[in-house]
Amino acid sequence: MQVRLRPVHFYVEGTRDMSQLTTEEKLTLVVRAQVARIRAAEANQRARTLQRRMNALLRTLDRFQRLHGREADLHSATDRAAVQSLRRSRDPGATSPEIVQEVAQALEQDVKARVAAKEALVAVQTAWGGGGPGETVVDWVGLPRDEIEQTLFRALGGQPAEMATSGASATNGEPR
Question: What does the alpha-carbon distance between residue 128 and residue 30 come to, in Å, rounded to a whole number?
Fold first, then answer.
């Protein structure tokens, strides 16, 4: 079950008092920020993994060029076979010309996810205002931690592994 988070609109020039946000609006802001942080961590991990694959391919292509005195054509079956034989990995997908496009897309998604996470955290920080002494985001939202976590869980599509691997939860969602 996918939870749709309603947009929370902020008015320009402080025409809306952020202290007057409803509990639902606060919850939406916090959950949106947590989801964005988790998605950013996932995008970053994917980009780093693909970048390592790309770096390994570039090292292999360099070896091919030194051995053959020319650049490899990964669209040529003969050159791909030669490059594959130089690779430590025997995964034929590791020499695919599409890896370059995959890496570029992953890096672009990583940047977009980081920007979205930053914007969501700034929105929480702006609305929360840092809270009072000892006040946590959970206190500010005004709901039990379990309820916030369940909303986060539903917003993530019921995939607890994402929450566990990201290091982010509603209990530490304070903006940094």
Answer: 10
